Amino acid sequence: MNDDIADPPALRGYDDPVARLGARLDRTDDLLRRILAEVARTPSTHAIFVDAGYVHAAAGLLCVGTEDRRSFDLDAEGLIDAFIDKARTIFADSRLLRVYWYDGARRRIHTPEQQVIAELPDVKVRLGNLNANNQQKGVDSLIRSDLESLARHRAISDAALVGGDEDLVSAVEAAQGYGARVHLWGIEAAEGRNQAEALVWEADSNRTFDQEFCRPYVTRRQVTTYENEGEPPPSRDEVRFVGQRIAATWYGERGPAFLAELLPGHPYLPGPVDQDLLIEAERLLSRSLRGHAVLRRALRDGFWDHLRSRL
After folding, report:
1. Among 277, 271, 282, which Cα is nearest to 244's?
2. Nearest to 169 by CA among 208, 202, 128, 207
3. pLDDT tens digits for 140-183?
4. Amino acid 275: pLDDT
5. Which residues, in sequence order, are CB contacts of 280 under 8 Å at separation 6+?
6. Nearest to 122 by CA among 81, 73, 153
7. Rounded Cα–Cα distance for residues 297 and 303 (Å)
8. Where in the chain does DSSP place strands (E)?
9. Three-class DSSP category at 43
């Protein structure tokens, strides 16, 4: 190949091959210096990925002794601000892209609480589904998709992941494969561990928030017993009708998929569904059904009566 053709115009005046090589090296060094200077001027970026199911369960158990969301209130706005402040300290030379808040909802329709969170600045709510047992479905895949996409497009250099499920290992590996560092954040376990060992091992760093950090954002709810002294308990027919009414409302909100998930267990209901049914019935009746086994059976019978009529 003709060297004059291969060389850029700036090097064509060099007849000595050694001089030409030196000029090429000088030009390469200059180019690298300019690239490094440009990289240095480009701020690094971080994002926070929060598995809300993990946070509710871990913080609730640690602060008020229960994982049941109905038993306590979580100040999500305050906790998100605390996470942002902590990230600002850890990633001092980095800017926040946003906080991703992953939760579950029936038919992926925002609850009022989730709507409030979605309106917060720098926060994006991403919803998986909830099955008949109130278990989240699809949340882990959402986390992996976002982590991988942001890392692949160099949108983030660091990711703070608040979660504990072993299924998140693949999300961490995917982000790391594109050069992002993933920092696992967790909440102190009330007993044992609440984060999978494989997830802990895979992360670039680990941090645990203790009870003192979490306590300001978790408040136990007041328990309402719905007892009216001196009044007779409701009749079986009345309770059965309430069960039918609740079933009609839930079926209208959740659709045939809800019925399909429950049918294999007939005549029994999954524990979380049965508990929700009891709480809603007591609210409608303004009476407690605790300790009334016959009435609770009537409630379930009415609930199933309506659902089976939809077949």
Report:
1. 277
2. 202
3. 889 999 999 999 999 999 999 999 999 999 999 999 999 999 99
4. 79
5. 246
6. 81
7. 10
8. 44-51, 72-74, 94-105, 123-130, 136-137, 158-162, 181-187, 205-209, 218-220
9. coil
